[in-house]
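Q: How would the structure tokens look for this protein?
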Amino acid sequence: MKKLGFLILLLLCLFLIFMYKGSFFESNTNLPNVEVQKYDQHENDEAADRESSENSKQVDVKEEQIYQGNLLLVNKKYPVHQKSIKSDVVNLYAHNDLVKGYGLLERTYLSEDIAHKFSDMMAAAGKEGVSNFFITSGFRDFDEQHKLYEEKGSDYALPAGYSEHNLGLSLDVGTTKMAMEKAPEGEWIDQNAWKYGFILRYPEDKTDITGIQYEPWHIRYVGLPHSAIMKEKDFVLEEYLDYLKEKKKISAKVEGKKYIVSYYPFSENMVIHIPENHEYKISGDNMDGIIVTVYE
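A: Here is the predicted structure in token form.
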């Protein structure tokens, strides 16, 4: 009987382990399918690029582009420049076509382009039965940020020009049900935002790097493949930019689509070569570098 009892206990333990592993793998089904490969011979690649310049288009890079794009690092050390602010900021109250799948807590401004992308993400969440979203804050100009800082203090707000909300790329998302960190909406954002180019900017376990307390409601647009790589590697923006500076050039395949991401320190009369028949995006890092993303 003792042997039989031991056998039953062993089988029960194996069953529980199996169920635990099953639930573990299920919880990771929303992780991106990302393959990242480092280019070890970056200088050789650049030489090859120059040799094949007849099959590429030449793009001049200006210094102002350090401060423009979706990958700008904004924090207590690197402020927003006027040229960094998205030029297509609109009042969402006056654009009902953009407000789909979520509500507005108050008068809210946001980049029109980012609003379209956020609406697409909300539509996807709605199809999965997660739909109680609303935007609590979007773009803020410097005057509004200064007023908020004066009212809330440094524990709850940043000085004018040092908040991502001054860019037009970030927004605070709430739910009508409960605190975001406990709500299905918060969980959905955490697991799925990367698919639409968004990241959770201030996660709980990275406060020592970001310098900002945990904000499960604050999301930021960086675009693909960057959001997928950051999710897969568990990077915040600071870590991702350091990673690109170290590797200089990476190849990333995200859900079957291939991207080449290159980091260049800015220099005078800077020129980059883009392969013919390829699309590309350029973003500064708001420090001293340029990130070029090439894709077909």
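The radius of gyration is 22 Å.

Confidence is low (pLDDT under 50) at residues 13-28.

Upvote if useful.
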